[in-house]
């Protein structure tokens, strides 16, 4: 193995392709197929014998943001209500679990949006809506000129190739009675995009991309370790050259040393095939590394969305601040003891009957009367930063009076002011506007 | 503390006489072997550590590194008919290895208790939370009445922060949220005021906010009961904030041992470097690289020759000859301090760490270290 650390340092993410041709090829022949190095030299997806596994070992820095990338997926006011039925013979609907309640965001082409939040906040439901495993109750999901939310199952089928999913648990998401070849090749047969006699070749090519031995196509999932199984899941998701990958907690079931391998593999896949990711995870550090843009969800709503530096460096929503302060930090070892953190009391309220106004107010230390009366709009307060809070501000400098009153036409207690002209702030667009509401001057400003 | 040196002879005394002098838990040269169809698997070998009362030891390692197996040996949870356990484990002065099941039962849950990762699987779905807590109490307090046990159960639920404990005591496990179940498990573990608490991945399945609550709780309770705590986890952040000492395990052996500060700021074993570099940090610079440990953990059926980490080690070429492949390194004192032990052939680990590893994983810290 070439493990010269200087060589490792030179490999920049942008040079991934160039270096792969030299280092990747040699490793490949040494590790995977000593007898037949060129047996799988097909280039259907335009790769030159890349060995991602080897590349990944060199390690990657965090993914960079491309602010000019157009949106590949644009989600607007997406809603998913699950009916709650009464017990008994006549199972009447007695309420709804508002799992996702009006969220809007954009996934940039070739970029990643991270979705974080506690369990039950609706982040996995969002992933399943985008892959249309659920039919949304309302809203739209624009992809490639189609609204995924309104398509029928038949109309959806050709688009399913473009939107694929990587699941959390590599043990339950692979059929134990199917070989790896069948699992990875199944999408090809469903969509009939390659002739039957070429399926095997494509499967082996995919296995190689994800760093598995292509000769192992006839093995069963139980013969692989957790990290390898997750690679099989990734290979299956890549089979149809998707444009958008929804990765729902792709590494949380894996061992620590393996997590980084899979994260780096996903980064390589992204830079090579220009795939966009909706990356759902509760591990804030992994999301920070993988996603240049992050959305924080709480009880079915996006409470804060913005670029990585803003969300992790200058979060304005009390929930984001609490969430970040709760993450144990390795660097604390140098100091000793526990880090100061914001204590959140109690549990997340039930999404069947969410709190009025701001959903976070029951656990928020800044909550005032207005928070119970008026729901804070997801307001753009920076070039790439939106927050939904009446008292938005950096940690330690939350304003004493609500910042949203002028916009909403209410007084500090949340009661409507006679004669005020509220701006229609509920109409948030999925992406970012060129102008935004400055919290200090309370005026609309631009760059 | 007096200046009387602590001696090993105290081990022969009864547990009650020993009280606070000397580590409460002493594990020496522990070896656990399981016979399997494919041959014997040595899950743990040559493991030595100790935990004092009021202190926390963090055990880190991948799955299969023997961290859970060794703690289960301490708890006497292995089937003695199949598992072969050698070495010595002394809990409060009592030798546990080879102890009869009846005597073990007297210790387990009373002087030592364990908190498991998956609280839903560890709690019986069919019995009320209160009933399970009461049972744990009654087993070790044969003279106590059911009413006492119930009062104790409610008291413990209150202690671990469950709202309305007198009402929730009659709930079933499925009626509790994930965090509450973990609290109930902790309440059950602590109901008999154990002096040793082993927490096996206590927060792995939980959200960060709940995790922080549980860790706070563990720390408060430890202060209150002055118990010795072992936290088994793979989250180095949890280790950094909770543990006094850290034991890094790989393929059944201790590969590095020291204070939390030594292990996390000046590690001297490539596996520990690998762990540190393969975990992104919320506070890290975005120029920091995420460098995974190549390969997979070894099979313990056929452990690698020499240093068991050598097939995955990227620094073994710096060791002259075939030493890494042929000879198992001894656990020797590291350069940073007396209590810091490492198992590695590298001649200048500090140099390698500061010039090669640190610039990659934490460029912002390089200046500070120099």
What would a concise description of this structure say?
The complex is a heterodimer of chains A (447) and B (370). By secondary structure, chain A is α/β, with parallel strands linked by helices.
Reading off the top of the CATH hierarchy, the class of the largest domain in chain B is best stated as Alpha Beta
Topology of chain A as a string of helices (H) and strands (E):
HHHEEEHEEHEHHHEHEHEEHHHHEEHEE
- Strand order within the widest beta sheet of chain A: 6-7-8-3-9-10-12-11
Q: Which range does the strand content of chain A fall in? A: 15-25%
Low-confidence stretches of chain B: 1-20
H/I helix tally of chain B:
15
The CATH homologous superfamily name of the domain at 71-296 in chain A equals P-loop containing nucleotide triphosphate hydrolases
What is CATH's topology name of the largest domain in chain B? Rossmann fold
User: Could you describe the largest sheet of chain A, including whether it forms a barrel?
Assistant: 8 strands, mixed
Q: Tell me the total number of β-strands of chain B.
A: 12
Taking the sheet with the most strands of chain B, its summary is: 8 strands, mixed
Straight-line N-to-C gap of chain A: 49 Å
CATH superfamily of the largest domain in chain B: P-loop containing nucleotide triphosphate hydrolases
| SS-derived structural category of chain B | alpha/beta
What fold name stands as the CATH topology of the domain at 71-296 in chain A?
A: Rossmann fold
Q: Overall pLDDT of chain A, averaged?
A: 82
Multimeric state: heterodimer
Q: Count the helices of chain A. How many?
A: 15
Characterise this structure:
Chain A is α/β, with parallel strands linked by helices. Among the domains of chain A are: 5-57, no CATH class; 71-296, P-loop containing nucleotide triphosphate hydrolases (Rossmann fold, 3-Layer(aba) Sandwich), CATH 3.40.50.300. Chain A contains 15 helices and 14 strands. Chain A has helices at residues 5-10, 16-31, 52-57, 123-130, 153-160, 180-191, 199-209, 226-238, 256-273, 284-290, 308-313, 318-325, 332-335, 369-373, 405-408; strands spanning 71-85, 93-108, 112-116, 138-143, 146-147, 163-166, 244-248, 276-280, 293-298, 301-307, 379-382, 385-387, 435-438, 443-446. In chain A, 47% of the residues are buried. The model of chain A is unreliable at 1-50 (pLDDT under 50). Chain B has two domains: 22-243, Rossmann fold (3-Layer(aba) Sandwich), CATH 3.40.50.300; 265-369, no CATH class. Chain B is built from 15 helices and twelve strands. In chain B, the strands form two sheets. Chain B has an eight-stranded mixed sheet with strand order 6-7-8-3-9-10-12-11, sandwiched between helices. Chain B has a four-stranded antiparallel sheet with strand order 2-1-4-5. In chain B, helix 5 packs across helix 6 and helix 8 (178-190) runs parallel beside helix 9 (208-225). The longest helix of chain B has 18 residues, at 208-225. The model of chain B is unreliable at 1-20 (pLDDT under 50). The chains are: A alpha/beta (447), B alpha/beta (370).
